[in-house]
Amino acid sequence: MLKTSVLAAFLAIVALSPAYAAQDLCNEAHMKQMDGMIAKMTDATKQKEATTALDMSKAAMKKGDTAGCMKHMNEAHKAMGM
Ligand SMILES: [Cu+2]
């Protein structure tokens, strides 16, 4: 149930972003959403994986490295089972 609601929340975010592009995900608002979604994860190992990937994604975002941000973001999404 929890996993389904996390996925539903993610799909809602994607649906709200018609131009589902890097700049829509590499921003503070989405990072907050990711933090919230990761906090709800039940698999501690995957949760740590997602947190590590998201931290790297945030670091890349701060450097203005959108490609790097998206690369680590995708890793975080994968760890979240997306
Ligand atoms: Cu994300």
Task: Provide a quick synopsis of the model.
The protein is mostly helical and 82 residues long. It contains five helices and no strands. The two termini are 15 Å apart.
Topology (elements, then pairings):
Layout: H1 2-16, H2 22-25, H3 28-39, H4 44-62, H5 66-79
The structure holds copper (II) ion (CU).
Q: What proportion of the residues form beta strands (DSSP E)?
A: under 5%
Q: Main β-sheet: number of strands, strand sense, barrel status?
A: none
Distinct ligands, ions and cofactors found in the model: copper (II) ion
Helix content: over 70%
Order of helices and strands: HHHHH
Distance between the termini: 15 Å
Shape: globular
- Number of helices, where a helix is a run of at least 4 consecutive DSSP H or I residues: 5
Number of strands: 0
Counting helices, strands and paired strands, the structural category is mainly alpha
Rg on CA atoms, Å: 12 Å
Q: Could you list the spans in which at least 5 consecutive residues all have pLDDT below 50? A: none
User: Mean pLDDT score, rounded?
Assistant: 86
Describe the protein's architecture and organization.
It is a single chain. With 82 residues, this protein is mostly helical. It is 78% helix and 0% strand. The protein is built from 5 helices and no strands. The protein has helices spanning 2-16, 22-25, 28-39, 44-62, 66-79. Helix 3 (28-39) packs antiparallel against helix 4 and helix 4 (44-62) runs antiparallel to helix 5. The longest helix has 19 residues, at 44-62. The mean pLDDT is 86. It binds copper (II) ion. The site of copper (II) ion has 6 residues, from helix 3 and helix 5.
